[in-house]
Specification:
Layout (H helix, E strand, L loop, with lengths): L8 H11 L4 H5 L6 H9 L6 H11 L3 H5 L4 H6 L6 H8 L15 H16 L3 H21 L3 H21 L2 H18 L2 H18 L2 H15 L7 H20 L3 H18 L12 H14 L3 H8 L10 H17 L3 H14 L1 H5 L2 H13 L5 H9 L3
Protein name: Helix-turn-helix domain-containing protein
Organism: Streptomyces monticola
Pfam families: HTH_31
Amino acid sequence: MPVFDNDHTGQRIAAYRKKAGLTQRGLAARIPYSYSLVRQVEDGSRTASSGYIAAAAAVLCVDPAVLKGQPYVTELQQDQLMGLIRPIREALDLYDLGGDPDVTVRTPVQLIAAADELCRKVRATKLHAVASQLPDVITELTAAAYRSPSTSLWQALGSTYRTAHDVATKLGFPDLSTVALDRMGWAADRASDPLLGAARQYMRALTYFRSGECTVGFRLIDAGRRHLQQADPHQRDTLAVSGQLHLGAAVLHARADDADAVTTHLTEAENLARRTGEAGEVLWMSFGPTNVKLHRTSTLIEMRKFGEAVEQSQGLVFPTAWSASRVAHHHVHRSYALMETRRQEQALGELITARRIAPEQTRYYPPARETIRALVRQARRTPDTLDHLAAWISM
């Protein structure tokens, strides 16, 4: 028999709902989800999607991360990751203190290579290794950029800030990710790099997507496009960043349930992807035909068209050098869609695949954790593999 715990997103939503003086029907009347789903999410028989969490958080005046239970302190301590967050936070706070004369720095070539290596590792979901190395690289690059300012050093520093954002997001520290993105914009201005500035606005838009603030997200996408007006419109890198902005707009419009706008932006992104090919090396953004296909699936899930999402994502082949982070996310999202279409065994298989590809990321990814919990609650008898996954997330 499955063992139910009392620490899941639905239970936390119920607690904040009661604190706000709302009944389940009262909450349902204020969000675009049914009373039946509200009841099922709170009793743990249905998983809370990111859209549902964002909508509930807005009504209940609480951060979505609180409803998700982030950060997952027990697991972070077990994985020896909790102690690595403070040094990252401190390194991000050095940005306006100038070049520290007591810091020994490597050559610009070595530092730029170190920044690129951190980007590669975070895409490979080696979170512990990245979090361990990141503070020293940020500290050195900050000192080096002040001592001998150059476009390449400011760009590399902006890259490490972006990596800090990725780590903070994956480990469940939204406040830290916001600080990292502010620093990324600061470095992009000093590098006079419109592409880096546009990429930063895209990432900011995604933070508002997670919190359900689509209107602000749309404004940030537009701000990203204004950055691109300063770049060569025919350059492949410009096309790739433009395409990624269209993908960001597509998922925001899917959250807003605007199917026509979703189609428009996906079509624009697809046209750009034909021109760029797989452009994963452009600011480490994974843009290209494969990412367009993944976002098509994501938008279908956001609009709760789960059967279409399963069909769209079937048999997808990833390029050899593609980001493990994005591949694992795909398997988690497909797992959720399969669960919603009552194909629990296949859903479990997708989660096992995600864990194999990116164990650190999957353990801290809220949709993965919520899907595991929902599968346990739906099962009359939990298979050993599902029991192991449940124990893995401390359920």
